[in-house]
Amino acid sequence: MKGKLLINFALIICFFCCSSGRVIESPHYKVIHVESDFEIRQYKQVSWMSALVQGTASFEKSTQQGFHRLYQYIHGANSNSSHFLITSPVTTTIMASKRQPEHLIRYYLPNGNAENPPLPDSELNVQFEKWRSNCLAVRRFPGFAKDDNINKEIDALKSSLSKYLPEGAAISEYTIAQYNSSRRLLGRLNEVWLDVSGFTAEGCQPL
Ligand SMILES: *[C@@H]1O[C@H](CO)[C@@H](O)[C@H](O)[C@H]1NC(C)=O
Ligand SMILES: *[C@@H]1O[C@H](CO)[C@@H](O)[C@H](O)[C@H]1NC(C)=O
User: Fold this and answer.
1) Segment 38-61 mean pLDDT
2) Ligand 1 pocket, 79 CB below 6 A?
3) How far apart are CA 148 and CA 144, in angstroms?
4) What is the pTM of this model?
5) Contact present, 59 and 147 (Cβ < 8 Å)
6) Could you tell me if 46 and 92 are in contact, meaning their C-beta atoms sit under 8 angstroms apart?
């Protein structure tokens, strides 16, 4: 009797753990160099749906607007009325070289949809995009990614990298990757990504 109760109890615990602990897909990468405050990763090909947002300099507003369009795409606003899995991270690329502020918000397409995803409804204005294998310098930071803290994190990564990059190496795009739903208040993970593929930093060769 006691044994049976224990087994039932174990099953119940397992059910809750397994159903809430669903694995969230993220892009695959290999770490090829580690420093105390950043690392270099080599990513394989990655497929994204992306939403360009123009006309606001605010990282937070752009991310919200872009994500809203992507959210509709992954919840059925596509040629197949497909619903997609939640993946992470959601990324926001800040294109610093443009005269007008531009941000590109991206949703990572999970494995089954990485090759021929259904077409987005045209009014969403989101695009399918495929990255070739590339090398990223990555710095982690906790909390919420906000207009008033991301520049500090970007600058910190730039300065850590400066001794590795060639003199005058121009980096004009910075990406902020956010891994957790906004409902999570603690234990949040964000990253700054800088594409260093062009600089063959530390022997990072595209695959
Ligand atoms: C469309 O949906 C069907 C049924 O869910 C699925 O089998 C098919 O692969 C989907 N097509 C695309 C292009 O995603
Ligand atoms: C936030 O996301 C990271 C990366 O997926 C994960 O390791 C961490 O557990 C998440 N934090 C919370 C509170 O869920």
Assistant:
1) 95
2) no
3) 10
4) 0.86
5) yes
6) no
